[in-house]
Amino acid sequence: MTTVFLDGQFMPIAEAKVSAMDRGFLFGDGAYEVIPVYSRRPFRLAEHLARLRQTLDGIRLADPLGAAEWARLIGEIVARNAGEDQSVYLQITRGADTRRNHAFPAVAVPTAFLMSEPLTTPPPALRETGIAAISAAAIGCNPPPRV
Predict the structure, then answer these.
(1) Entry pTM
(2) Which residues have CB under 8 Å from 102's CB, separation 6+?
(3) Span 15-32, pLDDT tens digits
(4) Alpha-carbon distance 138 to 56, whole Å?
(5) How far apart are CA 84 and CA 78, in angstroms?
(6) How far apart are CA 1 and CA 37, in angstroms?
(7) How far apart are CA 70 and CA 107, in angstroms?
(8) Which residues in 116-144 are b (16+ Cβ under 10 Å) and which e?
(9) Residue 4 to residues 69, 123, 125: CA-CA distances in angstroms?
(10) Collapsed DSSP state (helix, strand, coil) of residue 20
């Protein structure tokens, strides 16, 4: 059974519920970060949390917990779920409002969600041969600062 963290509580994933009025659901008003975990150790955790902070600052959304608390919770979610290698998903939204309104609410209570799933890695043959990829610059975006 997968355990998740939602708004201050750990619970089975089947019990996790987010309001239909959550701005993340209605408008995509939030930020997320995916952190790979190898041998139960988050990979480049400080860098992921710095990127999360930059994203939250960019959309003017206060971090409800802060880097130290996220690091503690990530360690706990990894410990509560099976698998040496995991993929941790963290999402913060501006939270639920009483009505659907494009303007930011005067007082926002962010929704904080954290979960972990088994990390699926490419098979050895694919790692040896690689895959084809095409990359392109994002139009209108500045490159992220080096952390």
Answers:
(1) 0.83
(2) 27
(3) 999 999 999 999 999 999
(4) 19
(5) 9
(6) 19
(7) 22
(8) beebeeeeeeeeeeeeeeeeeeeeeeeee
(9) 15, 28, 33
(10) coil
User: Length of the chain in residues, anyone?
Assistant: 147
User: Closest Cα partner for 35 from 52, 58, 18?
Assistant: 52
Burial-class residue 76 by CB neighbours within 10 Å (0-12, 13-18, 19+).
middle
Q: What single string gives the DSSP state of each residue in 47-84?
A: HHHHHHHHHHHHTT---SS-HHHHHHHHHHHHHHS--S
Work out the pLDDT band at 121, boundaries 50, 70, 90.
confident
Cα separation of 41 and 25, whole Å? 30
- 147, two tokens: 């952390």
Contact, 118 vs 8, CB < 8 A? no
**Which tens digit of pLDDT belongs to each residue from 37-48?**
999 999 999 999
pLDDT tens, position by position, 98-113: 889 888 888 889 999 9
CA distance 107 to 141: 29
